[in-house]
Amino acid sequence: MSHRTTPARFTLDLAFGIGVVNPRLYGSFVEHLGRCVYTGLYEPGHPQADSEGLRQDVLELVRELGVTTVRYPGGNFVSGYRWEDSVGPRQERPVRLELAWKTTETNEFGLGEFMDFCAKTGMEPMMAVNLGTRGVEDALRLLEYSNHPGGTQLSDLRAAHGDKEPYRIRMWCLGNEMDGTWQIGHKTAEEYGRLAAETARAMKMIDPDLELVACGSSGTAIKTFAAWEATVLEATYDNVEHVSLHAYYEEIDGDRDSFLASAVDMEHYIESVVATCDHVRAKLKATKRINLSFDEWNVWYQQRPNPHPVEDWQQAPRLLEDVYTVTDAVVFGSMLIALLRHADRVTAASLAQLVNVIAPIMTEPGGPAWRQTTFFPFAQASAHGRGRVLRVDVDSPTYTTAKFGEVPLLHATAVIDDETGDVTVFAVNRSQTDALPLDIDLRGVDAHALVEHLVLADSDPEAVNTADRPDRVAPHPATGTTVTDGVLHAELEPLSWNMIRLTAEQG
Ligand code: AHR
C-alpha cells in the first residue's frame, strides 16, 4: 500500500469528452429463470397484483430504479424458447420442461404479458431469438408476429390475441452465449457466425431499421475469447450493429482487494472487444463501427452453493438469489463507472437481472418487495448519469492486488449535462481501511456549486437489506465536501460508492 494520505486528483474540462451516454446503458434483463418472472414481477393473487398479475410494488421499484431497456426472455432460457407456447389464451398454453435451468415452464407469463410489463414501466423491450434449437425461420415468424402491423397470418394472430398494435421491437439479440458448451445448441464460431449472419440478413429484409446484437463471448475466461468475436463479426458485419459482452464478478477465497478491482478487468475486456471490432472493420475496409452491448453484467456468487436446495423440474424455484452486501454494491458501482468511461462504444448494457435472480429488487411470494444494496448505485447513475461523459484521468494513490497488480484506489467518471452545465461525478474508494481525500479541479467546467454528495458505505461492509430489514442499507449525505477557488475537496469513506452533483447555476 503506498501514499495512503496523498489525495487522489483529477481535472474536469468540458473540452475533453468521451461520448454521449446512450440511455440504453441503463438497461436490465428479465429471464425465465428461478423467481425472476413468477412470484417476482408476476404474481396473480398477490395483494399488490394488478388485473394482469403484475406486482405493482415491483413496477414501482423498477420505475424508481430508472431501467430504460429490458432484455428478454433469456439468457440460457432463450436457446430452448418456443415463443408460440407463450402467446394466446393462457389456459391453452402448454407446460414444458425447461432444460437450461431444469425447471418446469407453465408459459402463463409470455410475450404479450412481457410487452404489458414494458408498457407499464416505460422500458424498451430488447428481444432475443432462439438460435440454439431454432434458426432463421423461427426468428422471422417471431418478428412478423411482433412487429408486422397486420394482414398476415402471424400479425393477425397477435391482433386476435388482443394486441392489435404491433410491438415495434427494435433491438434483437441473435441468440445467447452460443460459444458456451452449456448452451443448448452450442456452436463453433464459424457455425454461429453463419447462422447469425443469415438470420440477421433475413430479419433486415423485413425491417432494415432493426438493431441486431451478435453474440460475443460469454466471458473473457473462455478459450475462444477474441477469436470468437473476430470470426463472428467477419461473418455478420454488414447486418449487425452490436456485439455482446457478459461479465460476472465475485469475491473468491477472501481476496477482497482483487474483488474491489473487478472493474480493471471489465475495462480491459471492453477495450479488447473494441480493438477486435475495429480490427475486423479494418480488415473488411468497412466504414461503420460495431458498438458494444454489455448485456449481462453484475456481481454473481457462482461458486457458492445455493442456500435453497432445489429439486429438478420445479416451477419457479429459488435460484441465484444472491443477497448483496455493501461491498458488493461498491464493486457494482465501479462496474457502472467502467461502462460510463466507455460510453463512446458501449451503447447498450443490461444489468443481469432485474428481480430476485442476481437482482437489485427482491420479493417474497405473498410478501414485500425491497431494494438490495446494488439498487442504489444503479438508480443514482440512471437518474443523474445522463449527458456527455468527460475524460477523467485519475492521479491516485494505489494498492496492491493479487490479480491485477497495482490498482488506483480511486475509480471515477463524470457526466456533464451540456444544456445546463451541471456535472455529476461518480467515484469509488477501493480502500477497505482508509478514507481517500479527493481534489477535483473544476477549472474547465462552469459547475462550481455543490448540490449534494451522497455515499453508500457502512461501518459493516457485510451489511445487507432483507425482507425483515429492508432499509438497513441506504445512501447517506457526506460531510465536509467543499468547493473552494474552483477545486472540490471531499473525503471518500473507506470502501464507498459516491455520487457528487455540481451545478452551474448561481445560487
Ligand atoms: O444471467 C444468468 C445466466 O448467465 C444467463 O442465463 C446466461 O446467459 C449467463 O450465463
Model description:
- By secondary structure, the chain is α/β, with parallel strands linked by helices.
- It has 10 helices and 25 strands.
- The protein has helices at residues 56-65, 111-121, 136-147, 153-160, 189-206, 227-236, 256-260, 262-283, 326-341, 375-384; strands at residues 8-13, 17-20, 27-29, 69-72, 96-98, 103-105, 124-129, 171-174, 211-214, 242-249, 291-299, 346-352, 361-363, 369-371, 388-390, 398-401, 405-408, 410-416, 423-429, 436-444, 449-456, 476-477, 482-484, 487-492, 496-503.
- The longest helix is centred in the middle third of the chain and has 22 residues, at 262-283.
- The chain starts with 7 loop residues before the first strand and ends with a strand.
- The mean pLDDT is 97.
- Homohexamer; trimer of dimers.
Helix content: 10-25%
Count all strands and give the number: 25
Mean pLDDT: 97
Assigned CATH class of the largest domain: Alpha Beta
- Small molecules bound in the structure, each named once: alpha-L-arabinofuranose
CATH architectural label of the largest domain: Alpha-Beta Barrel
Largest sheet: 8 strands, parallel, barrel
**Rg measurement, Å:** 23 Å
In the CATH hierarchy, what is the superfamily of the largest domain? Glycosidases
From the 3D structure, determine the CATH topology of the largest domain.
TIM Barrel
Shape, please? Answer: globular
Residue fraction in strands: 25-35%
End-to-end distance: 41 Å
Subunit structure: Homohexamer; trimer of dimers.
EC number: 3.2.1.55
Protein name: non-reducing end alpha-L-arabinofuranosidase
Domain Alpha-L-arabinofuranosidase C-terminal: 295-496
